[in-house]
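Ticket #4471: structure output looks truncated?

Reporter: J.K.
Steps to reproduce: submitted the chain below (136 residues) through the standard prediction queue, then opened the result file.
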Amino acid sequence: MEITKSKFTPVELEERKNLDFKSGDTVRVWSKIIEKGKTRLQAFEGLVLCRKHGKETGATFTVRKVSMGVGVEKIFPLFSPNIGKIEILKKAKTGRSKLYSIRTKAVKEVKKRLKSVTIAKIQKAAVEEETTNTEE
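Returned output as attached by the reporter:
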């Protein structure tokens, strides 16, 4: 077997260093994906939970989004050639540098919604039973 190397454009280091986004901001990250020998860009849009390692070559940032009711997180290396571009969509002011508490907050909101849905179904079923009993 022959190992093939994928060809990517080098990263503009100064451009990536000067990106001014932090935790709480909403970003769209365009990552390069290889399919059937061709490369394409795929967007991942979400909330930045944290940035780690500052402006070093090993700097990373974590992005979280909710897709079809399920929370999805990805950790992107800042200087990776697999990232086409990073767009900053919304800026936010937060009191913390790491927003890991959003994970539990989202779970609590989902549980509240599920409880309200099940309670509504039970109440609806009870009302239907009452109407059928009175008709007889």
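Triage note (M.O.): checked the attachment and the full token line is present. The mean pLDDT is 81.
Status: closed, working as intended.
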